[in-house]
């Protein structure tokens, strides 16, 4: 079955960087896009960006441009999210999610989530 | 940027029908998708492209979209339907989520 498995929880200090992984299985990795969505404690869902794993092209939400990098490794069917210059407001659960390369973008399935805690 | 509105909470009696709205400017011209999120879990797609159910989602879940409002309807509500529900559209090369609605089954 289609599955996205994410790396484990992270604790980082302000100003540091974090890299979260998302390993895909059960489908052709390069045929679908991967998105990243985060959720701060008790808050809603916030879209961060997208990668086409086949071509490597990316688009990021304006809020994160300059601070986020999404990459993919086709040899291991894994996508990575790196967020730099962390601040306390970046404390959140980070999700990866699969989407068809379509004009009607929806997410199915989602990874289990990775909690990133930013604290001094 | 495009904005979506949802009621903060909706209550429904066991076995009755819950309707969760998602408002947006001319949202009827967009494809709307709905997710269910239970505490401590990742979101799950329950409706895509306004009114389509993924495999494994009960027929009790249905969706519609017209004008400035999209609606997720949960018929014959069960205790297991208690969750947060988010609507989502794609606009200007980014995903936009509604603020979420907490559904309580009484």
Range of helix content of chain A: under 10%
- Which blocks of ≥5 consecutive residues of chain B have pLDDT under 50? none
Q: Largest sheet of chain B at a glance?
A: 6 strands, mixed
Strand content of chain A: over 45%
Report the total helices of chain B: 0
Overview of this structure, please?
The complex is a heterodimer of chains A (120) and B (106). Helix content of chain A is 0%, strand content 47%. Chain A is mainly β and 120 residues long. In chain A, the strands form two sheets. Chain A has a six-stranded mixed β-sheet, with no helix packed on it. Chain A has a four-stranded antiparallel β-sheet with strand order 1-3-8-7, with no helix packed on it. Chain A is globular, with a radius of gyration of 14 Å. The N and C termini of chain A lie far apart (40 Å). Chain B has 106 residues and is an all-beta fold. Chain B has no helices and nine strands.
What is this entry, summarized?
With 120 residues, chain A is mainly beta. Helix content of chain A is 0%, strand content 47%. Chain A is built from no helices and ten strands.
List keywords for this structure.
heterodimer, A: 120 residues, 0% helix, globular, B: 106 residues, mainly beta, six-stranded mixed β-sheet, 9 strands
Topology:
The complex is a heterodimer of chains A (120) and B (106).
Chain A (H helix, E strand, L loop, with lengths): L2 E4 L3 E3 L5 E8 L7 E7 L6 E6 L6 E3 L7 E6 L4 E6 L8 E8 L14 E5 L2
Parallel strand pairs in A: 2-10
Antiparallel strand pairs in A: 1-3, 3-8, 4-5, 4-9, 5-6, 7-8, 9-10
Chain B lengths: L8 E4 L5 E6 L9 E5 L6 E4 L13 E6 L2 E6 L8 E9 L2 E4 L3 E5 L1
Parallel strand pairs in B: 1-9
Antiparallel strand pairs in B: 2-6, 3-4, 3-7, 5-6, 7-8, 7-9
């Amino acid at each position: 079955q289609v599955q996205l498995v994410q790396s484990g929880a992270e604790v980082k200090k302000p100003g540091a960087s974090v890299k979260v992984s998302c390993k895909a299985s059960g489908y052709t990795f390069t045929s679908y896009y991967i998105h990243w969505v985060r959720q701060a404690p008790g808050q809603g869902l916030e879209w961060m960006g997208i990668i086409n794993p086949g071509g490597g092209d990316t688009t990021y939400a304006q809020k994160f441009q300059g601070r986020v990098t999404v990459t993919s490794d086709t040899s291991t069917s894994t996508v990575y999210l790196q967020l730099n210059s962390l601040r306390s407001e970046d404390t959140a659960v980070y999700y990866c999610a699969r989407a068809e390369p379509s004009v009607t973008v929806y997410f199915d399935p989602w990874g289990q989530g990775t909690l990133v805690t930013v604290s001094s | 940027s495009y904005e979506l509105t949802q009621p903060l909470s909706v209550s429904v009696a066991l076995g009755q029908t819950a309707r969760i709205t998602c408002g947006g400017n001319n949202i009827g011209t967009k494809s709307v998708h709905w997710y269910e999120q239970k505490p401590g879990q990742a979101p799950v797609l329950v409706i895509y492209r306004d009114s389509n159910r993924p495999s494994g989602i009960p027929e009790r879940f249905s969706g519609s979209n017209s004008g400035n409002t999209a609606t997720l309807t949960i018929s014959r509500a069960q205790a297991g339907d208690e969750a947060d529900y988010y609507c989502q559209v794609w606009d200007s090369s980014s995903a936009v989520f509604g603020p979420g609605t907490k559904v309580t089954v009484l």
